[in-house]
Sequence to fold (581 residues):
Amino acid sequence: MSSRERRPNSWRRIMAIARNTFRESVRDKVLYNLVFFVLLLTGAAIFLGDLSAGEEFKIIADLGLSATLLFGVFIAIFVGVGLVYKEIERRTIYSIFSKPVGRGEFLVGKYIGLCLTLLVNLLVMGAGVTLALMYVRRPHNPSVLYVWPALLLIYAELTIITAAALLFSSFSSPSLSALLSFLLFIIGHFSADLKAFAVSLGTQGAKVFFTTLYYLLPNLANYSFITPASYGHAPEPRALATSLLYAVAYNVALLAAASLIFRRRNFK
Amino acid sequence: MDDRGEGGATARAERRTLLALVAAVLFGLGSAAALTRWSESLRPVAGAPEVADELYLKPETARRLSLNFNGLVADWYWMRSLQYVGRKVLAYEGQLQLDDLSPLKLKVLAPLLEQTTTLDPHFYAAYEYGAVVLPAVDREAAVRLVQKGIDANPREWRLYHQLGYIHWQGGQFKEAARVYEEGAQQSDAPTWMRAMPARLEAEGGDRSLAREMFTRLHNEAGDEQIKELAIKRLAQLRSLDERDAIRRVLAIYRERALRCPESWAAIAPVLSRVPVLRLGPDGAPLDPTDKPYVLTAGGCEVELGLGSEILRQ
Fold:
Protein backbone atom coordinates (compact mmCIF):
# COMPACT_ATOMS: atom_id res chain seq x y z
CA MET A 1 0.00 0.00 0.00
CA SER A 2 1.43 3.37 -0.97
CA SER A 3 1.51 6.21 1.55
CA ARG A 4 -0.94 8.23 -0.58
CA GLU A 5 -3.55 5.42 -0.34
CA ARG A 6 -2.91 4.96 3.35
CA ARG A 7 -3.48 8.59 4.29
CA PRO A 8 -7.26 8.86 3.59
CA ASN A 9 -7.85 5.52 5.30
CA SER A 10 -5.85 6.65 8.30
CA TRP A 11 -7.96 9.82 8.54
CA ARG A 12 -11.15 7.76 8.24
CA ARG A 13 -10.01 5.48 11.08
CA ILE A 14 -9.11 8.46 13.25
CA MET A 15 -12.51 10.03 12.63
CA ALA A 16 -14.28 6.72 13.37
CA ILE A 17 -12.52 6.58 16.75
CA ALA A 18 -13.28 10.28 17.32
CA ARG A 19 -16.98 9.73 16.59
CA ASN A 20 -17.10 6.80 19.01
CA THR A 21 -15.28 8.78 21.69
CA PHE A 22 -17.66 11.70 21.18
CA ARG A 23 -20.71 9.41 21.45
CA GLU A 24 -19.29 7.74 24.54
CA SER A 25 -18.49 11.10 26.20
CA VAL A 26 -21.86 12.60 25.35
CA ARG A 27 -23.56 9.67 27.08
CA ASP A 28 -21.65 10.46 30.27
CA LYS A 29 -24.12 12.04 32.69
CA VAL A 30 -21.32 13.65 34.68
CA LEU A 31 -20.73 16.02 31.76
CA TYR A 32 -24.34 17.15 31.80
CA ASN A 33 -24.09 17.79 35.53
CA LEU A 34 -20.96 19.90 35.06
CA VAL A 35 -22.49 21.93 32.22
CA PHE A 36 -25.69 22.36 34.22
CA PHE A 37 -23.63 23.54 37.19
CA VAL A 38 -21.91 26.19 35.05
CA LEU A 39 -25.28 27.40 33.76
CA LEU A 40 -26.56 27.50 37.33
CA LEU A 41 -23.53 29.55 38.42
CA THR A 42 -24.03 31.94 35.51
CA GLY A 43 -27.69 32.34 36.45
CA ALA A 44 -26.70 32.94 40.07
CA ALA A 45 -24.27 35.64 38.87
CA ILE A 46 -27.29 37.72 37.79
CA PHE A 47 -28.34 37.90 41.43
CA LEU A 48 -24.75 38.39 42.62
CA GLY A 49 -24.52 41.34 40.25
CA ASP A 50 -27.11 43.13 42.39
CA LEU A 51 -24.52 43.22 45.19
CA SER A 52 -21.85 44.75 42.98
CA ALA A 53 -22.99 48.39 42.75
CA GLY A 54 -23.62 48.55 39.01
CA GLU A 55 -21.03 45.97 37.92
CA GLU A 56 -23.51 43.27 36.85
CA PHE A 57 -22.03 42.83 33.38
CA LYS A 58 -18.50 42.37 34.71
CA ILE A 59 -19.56 39.95 37.45
CA ILE A 60 -21.60 37.77 35.07
CA ALA A 61 -18.86 37.72 32.42
CA ASP A 62 -16.12 37.00 34.97
CA LEU A 63 -18.05 34.31 36.82
CA GLY A 64 -19.53 32.72 33.70
CA LEU A 65 -16.24 32.57 31.77
CA SER A 66 -14.20 31.51 34.82
CA ALA A 67 -16.69 28.72 35.59
CA THR A 68 -16.55 27.67 31.94
CA LEU A 69 -12.75 27.49 32.09
CA LEU A 70 -12.60 25.70 35.44
CA PHE A 71 -15.25 23.11 34.61
CA GLY A 72 -13.81 22.77 31.11
CA VAL A 73 -10.46 21.93 32.72
CA PHE A 74 -12.18 19.36 34.96
CA ILE A 75 -13.86 17.74 31.95
CA ALA A 76 -10.64 17.80 29.90
CA ILE A 77 -8.59 16.26 32.71
CA PHE A 78 -11.01 13.72 34.16
CA VAL A 79 -12.37 12.51 30.83
CA GLY A 80 -8.97 12.86 29.13
CA VAL A 81 -7.07 10.67 31.61
CA GLY A 82 -9.76 7.98 31.42
CA LEU A 83 -9.86 7.76 27.63
CA VAL A 84 -6.99 5.33 27.23
CA TYR A 85 -7.19 3.78 30.69
CA LYS A 86 -10.81 2.65 30.24
CA GLU A 87 -9.98 0.87 27.00
CA ILE A 88 -7.11 -0.97 28.70
CA GLU A 89 -9.16 -1.76 31.80
CA ARG A 90 -12.09 -3.14 29.78
CA ARG A 91 -9.63 -4.91 27.50
CA THR A 92 -11.41 -3.43 24.48
CA ILE A 93 -8.03 -2.09 23.38
CA TYR A 94 -7.10 -5.62 22.21
CA SER A 95 -10.06 -5.78 19.85
CA ILE A 96 -9.28 -2.27 18.58
CA PHE A 97 -5.66 -3.10 17.87
CA SER A 98 -6.61 -6.43 16.30
CA LYS A 99 -7.99 -4.25 13.49
CA PRO A 100 -5.71 -2.21 11.24
CA VAL A 101 -5.58 0.78 13.61
CA GLY A 102 -2.27 2.34 14.56
CA ARG A 103 -1.60 3.36 18.14
CA GLY A 104 -1.01 6.95 17.06
CA GLU A 105 -4.31 6.95 15.13
CA PHE A 106 -6.07 5.63 18.20
CA LEU A 107 -4.67 8.43 20.38
CA VAL A 108 -5.39 11.20 17.88
CA GLY A 109 -8.92 9.84 17.35
CA LYS A 110 -9.54 9.84 21.09
CA TYR A 111 -8.15 13.37 21.33
CA ILE A 112 -10.34 14.74 18.53
CA GLY A 113 -13.40 13.01 20.02
CA LEU A 114 -12.86 14.66 23.38
CA CYS A 115 -12.12 18.03 21.76
CA LEU A 116 -15.46 17.77 19.94
CA THR A 117 -17.20 17.01 23.23
CA LEU A 118 -15.50 19.99 24.82
CA LEU A 119 -16.54 22.18 21.90
CA VAL A 120 -20.21 21.23 22.32
CA ASN A 121 -20.01 21.80 26.10
CA LEU A 122 -18.33 25.15 25.58
CA LEU A 123 -20.95 26.24 23.06
CA VAL A 124 -23.72 25.43 25.54
CA MET A 125 -21.92 27.20 28.41
CA GLY A 126 -21.08 30.18 26.18
CA ALA A 127 -24.71 30.47 25.10
CA GLY A 128 -25.70 30.48 28.79
CA VAL A 129 -23.25 33.30 29.58
CA THR A 130 -24.38 35.29 26.52
CA LEU A 131 -28.05 34.95 27.48
CA ALA A 132 -27.30 36.08 31.03
CA LEU A 133 -25.39 39.10 29.69
CA MET A 134 -28.21 39.92 27.29
CA TYR A 135 -30.57 39.82 30.24
CA VAL A 136 -28.65 42.58 32.07
CA ARG A 137 -27.72 44.57 28.95
CA ARG A 138 -29.81 45.36 25.93
CA PRO A 139 -29.73 42.34 23.57
CA HIS A 140 -28.29 44.34 20.67
CA ASN A 141 -25.37 45.69 22.74
CA PRO A 142 -22.31 44.41 20.80
CA SER A 143 -20.11 44.05 23.92
CA VAL A 144 -22.19 40.96 24.80
CA LEU A 145 -20.60 39.15 21.84
CA TYR A 146 -17.04 39.84 23.00
CA VAL A 147 -17.23 36.87 25.35
CA TRP A 148 -16.94 34.63 22.29
CA PRO A 149 -13.30 35.45 21.44
CA ALA A 150 -12.55 34.79 25.13
CA LEU A 151 -14.40 31.46 24.81
CA LEU A 152 -12.35 30.61 21.72
CA LEU A 153 -9.17 31.21 23.73
CA ILE A 154 -10.54 29.11 26.61
CA TYR A 155 -11.23 26.34 24.10
CA ALA A 156 -7.66 26.54 22.78
CA GLU A 157 -6.38 26.27 26.36
CA LEU A 158 -8.61 23.25 26.99
CA THR A 159 -7.28 21.48 23.90
CA ILE A 160 -3.76 21.84 25.35
CA ILE A 161 -4.88 20.47 28.72
CA THR A 162 -6.63 17.57 26.96
CA ALA A 163 -3.48 16.75 24.98
CA ALA A 164 -1.44 16.91 28.19
CA ALA A 165 -3.91 14.62 29.99
CA LEU A 166 -3.64 12.17 27.09
CA LEU A 167 0.16 12.34 27.18
CA PHE A 168 0.34 11.65 30.91
CA SER A 169 -2.25 8.87 30.70
CA SER A 170 -0.17 7.19 28.00
CA PHE A 171 2.40 6.17 30.61
CA SER A 172 0.89 6.58 34.09
CA SER A 173 -2.20 5.80 36.18
CA PRO A 174 -5.36 7.96 35.88
CA SER A 175 -4.94 9.60 39.30
CA LEU A 176 -1.31 10.50 38.68
CA SER A 177 -2.18 11.74 35.18
CA ALA A 178 -4.97 13.91 36.57
CA LEU A 179 -2.60 15.35 39.17
CA LEU A 180 0.14 16.04 36.62
CA SER A 181 -2.33 17.63 34.19
CA PHE A 182 -3.72 19.89 36.88
CA LEU A 183 -0.21 20.90 37.95
CA LEU A 184 0.62 21.69 34.32
CA PHE A 185 -2.51 23.88 34.17
CA ILE A 186 -1.29 25.79 37.25
CA ILE A 187 2.35 26.07 36.14
CA GLY A 188 1.19 27.13 32.68
CA HIS A 189 -0.29 30.26 34.22
CA PHE A 190 2.98 31.05 36.00
CA SER A 191 5.05 31.00 32.81
CA ALA A 192 5.69 34.76 32.90
CA ASP A 193 7.06 34.37 36.46
CA LEU A 194 9.34 31.57 35.28
CA LYS A 195 10.84 33.91 32.70
CA ALA A 196 11.23 36.73 35.22
CA PHE A 197 12.79 34.25 37.66
CA ALA A 198 15.27 33.09 35.00
CA VAL A 199 16.32 36.69 34.32
CA SER A 200 16.80 37.44 38.02
CA LEU A 201 19.06 34.43 38.67
CA GLY A 202 22.81 34.86 39.00
CA THR A 203 24.27 31.67 37.58
CA GLN A 204 24.22 30.99 33.85
CA GLY A 205 23.20 27.34 34.37
CA ALA A 206 20.12 28.29 36.37
CA LYS A 207 19.23 30.93 33.80
CA VAL A 208 19.41 28.39 30.98
CA PHE A 209 17.42 25.84 33.01
CA PHE A 210 14.53 28.19 33.81
CA THR A 211 14.49 29.74 30.35
CA THR A 212 14.29 26.24 28.84
CA LEU A 213 11.48 25.41 31.26
CA TYR A 214 9.70 28.60 30.23
CA TYR A 215 9.75 27.57 26.58
CA LEU A 216 8.99 23.88 27.26
CA LEU A 217 5.96 24.36 29.49
CA PRO A 218 2.73 25.60 27.92
CA ASN A 219 2.33 29.37 28.12
CA LEU A 220 -1.31 29.41 29.24
CA ALA A 221 -1.15 33.12 30.08
CA ASN A 222 -1.68 33.57 26.30
CA TYR A 223 -5.26 32.45 26.85
CA SER A 224 -6.10 34.78 29.76
CA PHE A 225 -8.69 37.01 28.19
CA ILE A 226 -11.55 36.70 30.68
CA THR A 227 -10.99 40.05 32.42
CA PRO A 228 -10.73 42.19 29.25
CA ALA A 229 -13.81 40.40 27.86
CA SER A 230 -15.70 41.35 31.02
CA TYR A 231 -15.11 45.01 30.03
CA GLY A 232 -16.46 44.32 26.54
CA HIS A 233 -13.00 44.38 24.91
CA ALA A 234 -12.09 42.16 21.96
CA PRO A 235 -8.58 40.67 21.55
CA GLU A 236 -6.27 41.99 18.85
CA PRO A 237 -6.67 39.75 15.78
CA ARG A 238 -2.91 39.18 15.54
CA ALA A 239 -2.63 38.19 19.22
CA LEU A 240 -5.64 35.90 18.84
CA ALA A 241 -4.20 34.22 15.74
CA THR A 242 -0.78 33.78 17.43
CA SER A 243 -2.38 32.19 20.49
CA LEU A 244 -4.40 29.79 18.34
CA LEU A 245 -1.33 28.84 16.28
CA TYR A 246 0.62 28.30 19.51
CA ALA A 247 -2.11 25.90 20.68
CA VAL A 248 -1.92 23.96 17.39
CA ALA A 249 1.88 23.71 17.59
CA TYR A 250 1.88 22.69 21.25
CA ASN A 251 -0.89 20.13 20.70
CA VAL A 252 1.01 18.57 17.80
CA ALA A 253 4.07 18.26 20.05
CA LEU A 254 2.11 16.76 22.95
CA LEU A 255 0.22 14.27 20.76
CA ALA A 256 3.43 13.24 19.00
CA ALA A 257 5.10 12.65 22.38
CA ALA A 258 2.05 10.71 23.60
CA SER A 259 2.11 8.55 20.43
CA LEU A 260 5.83 7.89 20.88
CA ILE A 261 5.31 6.65 24.43
CA PHE A 262 2.10 4.80 23.64
CA ARG A 263 3.75 2.88 20.78
CA ARG A 264 6.12 1.26 23.26
CA ARG A 265 3.55 0.57 25.93
CA ASN A 266 2.96 -3.04 26.92
CA PHE A 267 -0.71 -3.69 27.83
CA LYS A 268 -0.11 -7.03 29.63
CA MET B 1 -50.68 -17.64 48.27
CA ASP B 2 -47.74 -18.32 50.57
CA ASP B 3 -45.44 -16.66 48.06
CA ARG B 4 -47.65 -13.61 47.94
CA GLY B 5 -47.79 -13.50 51.73
CA GLU B 6 -44.03 -13.92 51.91
CA GLY B 7 -43.54 -11.23 49.24
CA GLY B 8 -45.88 -8.86 51.08
CA ALA B 9 -44.02 -9.44 54.34
CA THR B 10 -40.70 -8.72 52.59
CA ALA B 11 -42.11 -5.52 51.09
CA ARG B 12 -43.45 -4.46 54.50
CA ALA B 13 -40.07 -5.15 56.09
CA GLU B 14 -38.39 -3.18 53.30
CA ARG B 15 -40.76 -0.25 53.87
CA ARG B 16 -40.16 -0.38 57.63
CA THR B 17 -36.40 -0.31 57.08
CA LEU B 18 -36.76 2.62 54.68
CA LEU B 19 -38.91 4.57 57.11
CA ALA B 20 -36.52 3.80 59.95
CA LEU B 21 -33.59 5.07 57.88
CA VAL B 22 -35.45 8.27 56.88
CA ALA B 23 -36.41 8.76 60.54
CA ALA B 24 -32.77 8.22 61.58
CA VAL B 25 -31.58 10.83 59.04
CA LEU B 26 -34.18 13.36 60.20
CA PHE B 27 -33.49 12.61 63.84
CA GLY B 28 -29.71 12.89 63.35
CA LEU B 29 -29.92 16.21 61.47
CA GLY B 30 -32.53 17.61 63.88
CA SER B 31 -30.44 16.65 66.91
CA ALA B 32 -27.29 18.13 65.34
CA ALA B 33 -29.08 21.43 64.67
CA ALA B 34 -30.53 21.51 68.20
CA LEU B 35 -27.13 20.74 69.73
CA THR B 36 -25.51 23.49 67.64
CA ARG B 37 -28.04 26.02 68.91
CA TRP B 38 -27.57 24.80 72.47
CA SER B 39 -23.76 25.02 72.29
CA GLU B 40 -24.07 28.52 70.75
CA SER B 41 -26.17 29.64 73.69
CA LEU B 42 -23.44 28.45 76.07
CA ARG B 43 -20.76 30.51 74.31
CA PRO B 44 -20.44 34.22 75.15
CA VAL B 45 -21.52 36.57 72.35
CA ALA B 46 -18.44 37.63 70.42
CA GLY B 47 -17.82 41.26 69.60
CA ALA B 48 -17.49 42.62 66.09
CA PRO B 49 -15.25 40.19 64.15
CA GLU B 50 -12.48 42.70 63.40
CA VAL B 51 -9.90 39.91 63.12
CA ALA B 52 -11.97 38.22 60.41
CA ASP B 53 -11.73 41.45 58.44
CA GLU B 54 -7.96 41.25 58.18
CA LEU B 55 -6.54 40.26 54.83
CA TYR B 56 -4.35 37.19 54.81
CA LEU B 57 -2.85 37.65 51.38
CA LYS B 58 -0.75 40.48 50.02
CA PRO B 59 -2.32 41.95 46.86
CA GLU B 60 0.53 40.77 44.64
CA THR B 61 0.42 37.25 46.11
CA ALA B 62 -3.35 37.11 45.54
CA ARG B 63 -2.81 38.19 41.93
CA ARG B 64 -0.25 35.46 41.32
CA LEU B 65 -2.35 32.76 42.97
CA SER B 66 -5.47 33.69 41.06
CA LEU B 67 -4.12 32.17 37.79
CA ASN B 68 -6.51 33.10 34.97
CA PHE B 69 -9.25 33.94 37.45
CA ASN B 70 -7.91 37.34 38.58
CA GLY B 71 -11.03 39.12 37.31
CA LEU B 72 -13.29 36.82 39.28
CA VAL B 73 -11.19 37.16 42.45
CA ALA B 74 -11.19 40.96 41.98
CA ASP B 75 -15.01 40.84 41.77
CA TRP B 76 -15.06 38.86 44.97
CA TYR B 77 -12.85 41.42 46.79
CA TRP B 78 -14.97 44.24 45.33
CA MET B 79 -18.18 42.75 46.69
CA ARG B 80 -16.38 42.08 49.97
CA SER B 81 -15.47 45.78 50.15
CA LEU B 82 -19.11 46.76 49.60
CA GLN B 83 -20.32 44.20 52.14
CA TYR B 84 -17.71 45.38 54.64
CA VAL B 85 -18.92 48.98 54.41
CA GLY B 86 -22.57 47.91 54.28
CA ARG B 87 -22.25 45.77 57.42
CA LYS B 88 -20.68 48.66 59.34
CA VAL B 89 -23.32 51.12 58.11
CA LEU B 90 -26.11 48.79 59.26
CA ALA B 91 -24.50 48.35 62.67
CA TYR B 92 -24.08 52.13 63.13
CA GLU B 93 -26.88 54.05 64.82
CA GLY B 94 -26.93 57.55 63.42
CA GLN B 95 -26.77 59.63 60.26
CA LEU B 96 -23.99 58.93 57.77
CA GLN B 97 -22.99 60.22 54.37
CA LEU B 98 -21.07 58.23 51.79
CA ASP B 99 -18.28 60.83 51.70
CA ASP B 100 -17.91 60.90 55.47
CA LEU B 101 -17.92 57.40 56.88
CA SER B 102 -15.11 58.18 59.34
CA PRO B 103 -17.24 57.18 62.40
CA LEU B 104 -17.29 53.61 61.06
CA LYS B 105 -13.50 53.12 61.41
CA LEU B 106 -13.19 51.39 58.03
CA LYS B 107 -9.58 50.31 58.54
CA VAL B 108 -9.72 47.40 56.08
CA LEU B 109 -11.40 49.31 53.25
CA ALA B 110 -8.16 50.67 51.79
CA PRO B 111 -6.44 47.23 51.73
CA LEU B 112 -9.58 45.66 50.23
CA LEU B 113 -9.71 48.20 47.40
CA GLU B 114 -5.95 47.88 46.96
CA GLN B 115 -6.40 44.10 46.62
CA THR B 116 -9.26 44.55 44.14
CA THR B 117 -7.33 46.91 41.91
CA THR B 118 -4.10 44.89 42.03
CA LEU B 119 -6.05 41.85 40.84
CA ASP B 120 -7.78 43.89 38.15
CA PRO B 121 -6.01 47.23 37.50
CA HIS B 122 -8.81 48.34 35.14
CA PHE B 123 -11.58 48.04 37.75
CA TYR B 124 -12.82 51.63 37.43
CA ALA B 125 -15.73 51.21 39.88
CA ALA B 126 -13.25 50.41 42.69
CA TYR B 127 -11.21 53.58 42.02
CA GLU B 128 -14.39 55.67 41.84
CA TYR B 129 -15.71 54.26 45.11
CA GLY B 130 -12.30 54.73 46.75
CA ALA B 131 -12.13 58.36 45.59
CA VAL B 132 -15.45 59.16 47.27
CA VAL B 133 -15.41 57.00 50.40
CA LEU B 134 -11.72 56.66 51.31
CA PRO B 135 -10.68 60.33 51.79
CA ALA B 136 -12.66 60.60 55.04
CA VAL B 137 -11.05 57.38 56.30
CA ASP B 138 -7.50 57.68 54.98
CA ARG B 139 -6.80 60.52 52.53
CA GLU B 140 -3.30 59.31 51.65
CA ALA B 141 -4.60 55.84 50.84
CA ALA B 142 -7.28 57.38 48.62
CA VAL B 143 -4.69 59.41 46.70
CA ARG B 144 -2.42 56.34 46.40
CA LEU B 145 -5.29 54.20 45.10
CA VAL B 146 -6.43 56.63 42.41
CA GLN B 147 -2.85 57.50 41.44
CA LYS B 148 -2.28 53.75 40.99
CA GLY B 149 -5.35 53.70 38.75
CA ILE B 150 -3.89 56.54 36.66
CA ASP B 151 -0.56 54.70 36.37
CA ALA B 152 -2.37 51.59 35.13
CA ASN B 153 -4.84 53.50 32.90
CA PRO B 154 -3.05 56.72 31.95
CA ARG B 155 -5.58 57.59 29.23
CA GLU B 156 -8.65 57.31 31.48
CA TRP B 157 -9.52 60.99 32.08
CA ARG B 158 -12.20 60.11 34.65
CA LEU B 159 -9.46 58.95 37.05
CA TYR B 160 -7.79 62.37 36.88
CA HIS B 161 -11.20 63.84 37.67
CA GLN B 162 -11.46 61.52 40.72
CA LEU B 163 -7.97 62.46 41.93
CA GLY B 164 -8.69 66.15 41.38
CA TYR B 165 -11.89 65.74 43.39
CA ILE B 166 -9.94 64.22 46.34
CA HIS B 167 -7.43 67.12 46.31
CA TRP B 168 -10.22 69.73 45.98
CA GLN B 169 -12.07 68.16 48.91
CA GLY B 170 -8.89 68.32 50.98
CA GLY B 171 -8.48 72.01 50.15
CA GLN B 172 -5.37 71.37 48.01
CA PHE B 173 -6.57 73.49 45.10
CA LYS B 174 -3.19 73.88 43.37
CA GLU B 175 -2.65 70.12 43.42
CA ALA B 176 -6.20 69.61 42.13
CA ALA B 177 -5.60 72.15 39.32
CA ARG B 178 -2.40 70.30 38.32
CA VAL B 179 -4.25 66.95 38.15
CA TYR B 180 -7.10 68.44 36.09
CA GLU B 181 -4.57 69.96 33.73
CA GLU B 182 -2.98 66.54 33.21
CA GLY B 183 -6.41 64.95 32.75
CA ALA B 184 -7.47 67.58 30.22
CA GLN B 185 -4.56 66.53 28.00
CA GLN B 186 -5.99 63.03 27.50
CA SER B 187 -7.53 62.50 24.09
CA ASP B 188 -11.07 61.63 25.28
CA ALA B 189 -11.20 64.28 28.02
CA PRO B 190 -14.32 66.49 27.85
CA THR B 191 -13.95 70.24 27.30
CA TRP B 192 -15.03 71.17 30.83
CA MET B 193 -11.83 69.52 32.16
CA ARG B 194 -9.80 72.23 30.41
CA ALA B 195 -11.61 74.99 32.31
CA MET B 196 -11.13 73.35 35.70
CA PRO B 197 -7.47 74.29 36.44
CA ALA B 198 -8.17 78.01 36.05
CA ARG B 199 -11.37 77.81 38.09
CA LEU B 200 -9.61 75.89 40.85
CA GLU B 201 -6.84 78.48 41.00
CA ALA B 202 -9.35 81.35 41.10
CA GLU B 203 -12.36 79.98 42.98
CA GLY B 204 -10.82 77.10 45.02
CA GLY B 205 -13.28 76.96 47.92
CA ASP B 206 -16.23 78.75 46.31
CA ARG B 207 -19.72 77.39 46.29
CA SER B 208 -20.06 77.76 42.52
CA LEU B 209 -17.04 75.52 42.00
CA ALA B 210 -18.42 73.03 44.53
CA ARG B 211 -21.62 72.98 42.47
CA GLU B 212 -19.60 72.28 39.34
CA MET B 213 -17.66 69.50 41.11
CA PHE B 214 -20.77 67.71 42.36
CA THR B 215 -22.56 68.13 39.03
CA ARG B 216 -19.61 66.47 37.27
CA LEU B 217 -19.43 63.79 39.98
CA HIS B 218 -23.11 63.05 39.42
CA ASN B 219 -22.86 63.00 35.61
CA GLU B 220 -19.77 60.80 35.45
CA ALA B 221 -20.52 58.36 38.31
CA GLY B 222 -21.45 54.78 37.49
CA ASP B 223 -22.39 53.96 41.07
CA GLU B 224 -25.92 54.88 42.09
CA GLN B 225 -24.82 55.61 45.68
CA ILE B 226 -22.32 58.20 44.42
CA LYS B 227 -24.95 59.78 42.16
CA GLU B 228 -27.30 59.95 45.15
CA LEU B 229 -24.59 61.56 47.28
CA ALA B 230 -23.90 64.16 44.56
CA ILE B 231 -27.64 64.98 44.35
CA LYS B 232 -27.75 65.45 48.14
CA ARG B 233 -24.66 67.68 48.09
CA LEU B 234 -26.13 69.76 45.24
CA ALA B 235 -29.38 70.13 47.19
CA GLN B 236 -27.33 71.19 50.21
CA LEU B 237 -25.57 73.87 48.13
CA ARG B 238 -28.91 75.10 46.78
CA SER B 239 -30.26 75.26 50.30
CA LEU B 240 -27.21 77.28 51.43
CA ASP B 241 -27.89 79.75 48.58
CA GLU B 242 -31.56 79.94 49.58
CA ARG B 243 -30.71 80.57 53.24
CA ASP B 244 -28.28 83.32 52.21
CA ALA B 245 -31.08 84.95 50.18
CA ILE B 246 -33.50 84.67 53.12
CA ARG B 247 -30.89 86.16 55.49
CA ARG B 248 -30.54 89.14 53.16
CA VAL B 249 -34.33 89.70 53.26
CA LEU B 250 -34.29 89.35 57.07
CA ALA B 251 -31.47 91.89 57.33
CA ILE B 252 -33.38 94.43 55.19
CA TYR B 253 -36.55 93.87 57.25
CA ARG B 254 -34.59 94.33 60.52
CA GLU B 255 -33.03 97.52 59.17
CA ARG B 256 -36.39 98.96 58.20
CA ALA B 257 -38.63 97.72 61.07
CA LEU B 258 -35.87 97.71 63.73
CA ARG B 259 -36.99 94.25 64.78
CA CYS B 260 -37.08 90.72 63.40
CA PRO B 261 -40.27 89.33 61.79
CA GLU B 262 -42.58 87.30 64.03
CA SER B 263 -43.60 84.96 61.24
CA TRP B 264 -42.97 84.23 57.56
CA ALA B 265 -46.21 86.01 56.69
CA ALA B 266 -44.58 89.36 57.56
CA ILE B 267 -41.91 89.00 54.87
CA ALA B 268 -43.72 86.65 52.42
CA PRO B 269 -44.38 89.40 49.82
CA VAL B 270 -40.66 90.22 49.69
CA LEU B 271 -39.59 86.54 49.71
CA SER B 272 -41.92 85.78 46.79
CA ARG B 273 -39.93 88.21 44.63
CA VAL B 274 -36.61 86.41 45.26
CA PRO B 275 -36.04 84.18 42.18
CA VAL B 276 -34.25 81.30 43.95
CA LEU B 277 -37.01 80.83 46.56
CA ARG B 278 -40.25 78.84 46.48
CA LEU B 279 -42.93 79.53 49.12
CA GLY B 280 -45.40 77.15 50.80
CA PRO B 281 -49.12 77.90 51.26
CA ASP B 282 -48.41 79.69 54.60
CA GLY B 283 -45.74 81.90 53.03
CA ALA B 284 -42.83 79.90 54.50
CA PRO B 285 -39.95 79.36 52.05
CA LEU B 286 -39.39 75.73 51.09
CA ASP B 287 -36.04 73.95 51.00
CA PRO B 288 -35.08 71.75 47.98
CA THR B 289 -36.76 68.75 49.66
CA ASP B 290 -40.03 70.78 49.90
CA LYS B 291 -39.82 71.13 53.70
CA PRO B 292 -40.37 74.66 55.12
CA TYR B 293 -37.45 76.56 56.63
CA VAL B 294 -37.95 77.78 60.20
CA LEU B 295 -37.27 81.15 61.81
CA THR B 296 -34.98 80.95 64.84
CA ALA B 297 -33.32 83.41 67.26
CA GLY B 298 -36.56 85.35 67.59
CA GLY B 299 -37.07 85.56 63.86
CA CYS B 300 -33.59 86.93 63.13
CA GLU B 301 -32.09 83.73 61.77
CA VAL B 302 -33.22 80.97 59.38
CA GLU B 303 -32.59 77.25 59.83
CA LEU B 304 -33.58 73.97 58.22
CA GLY B 305 -36.89 72.56 59.46
CA LEU B 306 -36.94 69.50 61.70
CA GLY B 307 -38.16 67.15 58.97
CA SER B 308 -35.77 68.48 56.35
CA GLU B 309 -33.67 65.92 54.48
CA ILE B 310 -31.02 68.46 53.52
CA LEU B 311 -27.52 67.51 54.75
CA ARG B 312 -26.49 69.58 57.74
CA GLN B 313 -22.73 69.00 57.41
